[in-house]
Amino acid sequence: MRSDLRGLYAITPEYVDGKRLLTDVEAALTGGCRILQHRDKTSAMPERVARARALRELTLRHGARLVINDDIALTFLVGADGLHLGRDDGNLKAARALLGPQRLLGTSCYANLVAAQAAVAAGADYVAFGAVHQSPTKPQAPLAPRHLFSTAKAGLTAAVCAIGGITLDNAPPLIAAGADLLAVISDLFSAPDIVARAAAYQRLFEEHPA
After folding, report:
1. Cβ atoms within 10 Å of 87's Cβ, excluding its own
2. What residues form DSSP beta bridges with 66?
3. Distance between CA atoms of 72 and 13, rounded to whole angstroms?
4. pLDDT tens, 121-162?
5. Dihedrals phi, psi of 38, to nearest 5 degrees
6. Residue 146 and residue 59: Cα distance in Å, rounded?
7. 1, 12, 81, 114: most buried by Cβ count inside 10 Å?
8. Are 18 and 52 in contact (CB under 8 A)?
9. How far apart are CA 122 and CA 130, in angstroms?
10. What is the DSSP letter of 141?
11. Alpha carbon separation from 14 to 48, 126, 186 (Å, rounded)
12. Domains of the chain: which residue ranges?
């Protein structure tokens, strides 16, 4: 398993305001976040490219990695570090072949361990399970039980990511159960102090060694 895949995994909200996006992401990076997924399902393509390029510059400046959600062309266009695919977003084996061995490949497995096993066999570096709690982003998502992380951690070679309704209060049991990454949107970017919130998440991983 890639030992560098551990910590806060920030996912960008669907901001209308591009300047706010960059300001808030820089705050998260300043707080210690080193993995950022850019998820943009609403912007027109020129704006989507401009935002991704600006985020690439920010992540490089902070020594962080940028993962693009569901757009392999944009991943290559901006020189991002990886790609995340949902269940219906594309073929993992084909994506791995195109990305090569250096770029990250991750996928959403919801509460399905068999899907995670297949994803790892296809070349995924990390698999995401969730929602682990009710999420304002995807309120209808089925819940993934905590024991799934222990099972996945013991049986998979890929890193294990938890997503969905994660807060500072409910995060420690997930790390203890085996989550290498905590994917957070609302509890991070809605915080009154994003720098401090990102730093607090990173400290959780220091307090709970792998």
Report:
1. 12
2. 36
3. 20
4. 999 999 999 999 987 767 777 789 999 999 999 999 999 999
5. -95, 115
6. 31
7. 12
8. no
9. 20
10. P
11. 11, 23, 11
12. 7-207
CA 11/CA 149 separation, integer angstroms: 20
Amino acid occupying residue 117: Q
Amino acid 3: pLDDT: 66
Q: What is the CATH number of domain 7-207?
A: 3.20.20.70
Q: Letter for the amino acid at 118? A: A
Rounded Cα distance between 15 and 144, Å, is 27
CA–CA gap between residue 31 and residue 23 (Å, rounded): 13
Amino acid identity of 39?
A: R
Q: How far apart are CA 183 and CA 173, in angstroms?
A: 15
The DSSP code sequence of 20-89 is HHHHHHHHHHHTT--EEEE--SSS-HHHHHHHHHHHHHHHHHHT-EEEEES-HHHHHHTT-SEEEE-TTS
Query: Token pair for residue 118?
Result: 């297949």
Give, for 152, the enclosing helix (H) or strand (E): helix 147-155
Residue 70 Ramachandran class (φ > 0 left, ψ -120 to 50 alpha, else beta): left
Say what the pLDDT of residue 4 is.
86
Residues 71-111 pLDDT 10s: 999 999 999 999 999 987 789 999 999 999 999 999 999 99
Q: Is 96 exposed, middle or buried (0-12, 13-18, 19+ CB in 10 A)?
A: middle
Structure tokens at 74: 């944009």
